[in-house]
Amino acid sequence: MFNVKVERPEQPVAHESGKSNLYINPQANFSFNPPTSWNGHYKVNQYAGVDAVKILPSAKHVVQFDYTAKDGKDAETLLMISVFTKNDWTRLSSEEGPPVGTVIAESNDMVYVCTSPQSNPFDSLSEDGKLFDQLYGDLNINKSFALLK
Questions:
Q1: Which H/E stretch holds residue 47?
Q2: For 62-87, what is each residue's pLDDT tens digit?
Q3: Which residues, including other chains, have CB under 8 Å from residue 127's CB and lie 6 or more apart?
Q4: N or C: where does the chain have the smaller number of CB atoms within 10 Å of the terminal CB?
Q5: Cα(110)–Cα(88) distance, integer angstroms
Q6: Which of 17, 14, 61, 62 is nearest to 42 (CA)?
């Protein structure tokens, strides 16, 4: 479900800044600065409009930061940031079942939601399992996420 590739002519760009890889998405109006420990261990998949809805119903934007396994064949989501209208989020968050994620910001009638894995998708004793846990543990979403001014 998370490994869909979408070609879009207007891709927001990830800007490299010093030792970090600052990701900026002007369409979704946010930036994300991953921990430096993530460098070389993840890829970004971004979706907007109907493509975002295929990943997460009612989402206007979905950006996935996927851990890339050591063998290069497997990828698992470390973090997903989704953007909803306030009305859609209010409806979604009142539905039964596990929550879609945690609200990290609100601006201009839009709600920004962080979704993280419920558990490590790799064997916790494997090299990928240990690195996945370390990378996830290094994440501080409140320091890494920012709305664009």
A1: strand 42-48
A2: 999 999 998 888 899 999 999 999 99
A3: 70
A4: C
A5: 9
A6: 14
Closest C-alpha to 92, from 142, 37, 40, 53: 53
Decide: 110 and 29 in contact? Cβ < 8 Å: yes
Assigned token pair, 53 = 């809805």
Task: Compute the distance between CA of residue 123 and CA of residue 130 in angstroms, rounded to an integer.
Answer: 8
**Assessment of whether the complete model's pTM goes beyond 0.70:** yes
Q: Within 10 A of 35 (CB to CB), how many other CB atoms are there?
A: 16
3-state helix, strand, coil in the chain (%, to 5): 25, 35, 40
Which residues are CB-neighbours of 11 under 8 A, at least 6 positions away? Answer: 46
Which residues touch 140 (CB under 8 Å, ≥6 apart)? 35
